[in-house]
Amino acid sequence: TDKYAVFGNPIKQSKSPVIHAAFAEQCEQDLQYRAVRVELDAFERSVKSFFDGGGCGLNVTVPFKQRAFELADKCSIRAQRAGAVNTLLLAEDGSLLGDNTDGVGLVRDMVANLGWSLQGQRILILGAGGAVRGVLEPLLREKPRSLTIVNRTADKARELATEFGELGAIDGGGYELLADREFDLVINATSASLQGEMPDLPGSLLTARSCCYDMVYGAEPTVFMRWAALNTAWAVADGLGMLVEQAAESFYLWRKVRPATGPVINQLRNSLA
Ligand code: ATR
Predict the structure, then answer these.
(1) Which residues form the Shikimate dehydrogenase substrate binding N-terminal domain (predicted)?
(2) Contact indicator for 203, 228 with CB cutoff of 8 Å
(3) Pocket test for ligand 1, best of 85, 190, 194, 217 (most atoms within 8 A of CB)
(4) Measuring CA to CA, which of 95, 171, 177, 227 is 20 to 30 A from 156?
């Protein structure tokens, strides 16, 4: 049985073992996948001993994604852009490869599962933390008309816009940037969501055709999703599909098999209720 795991701290909340067990069963893959709480000072040596002990692949979650990026011998372009790694695997020559599947997970959920097109659209992202950095390159690959990042700390949004500027039309700043502007797609990536808070937004930034996506999820609609519905967004979704899609991409990197994600998203949705 091939061994996989996710390393994080905390880790109790992780759905990854359930997701990968479902993928393995569906694709008839003989593997085990465990969630491991790693002490803050033990990440690097835990990764090493996992692979030395015959482990086949790792997911890495908060707060270790940047350290996984530093640790990997070689990283994919998307992981380099993200400055963060959520998937580790061994190359043929035994070196440690780092990749980041978060952004592609977000894009696939929006495009393939929800049927939202990104091409030519005006995209707004709320927040400028690690979660945003991780998804910018795959989003810009979809060729939106524009991508605007707003953040409480405006400088962080401006810095991201500068750093990713060569990949597409991207601007950034504080929330005051939103006055008198409209967007086709609004993505909430602030951690405020987790505390049931959200930034103050003018309802005028949505049109009758706008889509709203919250990168977090829960048993109930988030505050941002309720705001979107109240302001008559065309479509509203949470981040459960992104979670399953990023896992599917990791599974593919490890096993070279692509699981069907729809049944697993439904299974998780039912288990939240
Ligand atoms: P993550 O990995 O989830 O991105 P992070 O790097 O800590 O976590 O980033 C959290 C993001 O949520 C930041 O953009 C943060 O804004 P600041 O850069 O100004 O701190 C944003 N955020 C957190 N709480 C917020 C709040 N109450 N209102 C608005 N934005 C908030």
Answers:
(1) 6-88
(2) no
(3) 190
(4) 227
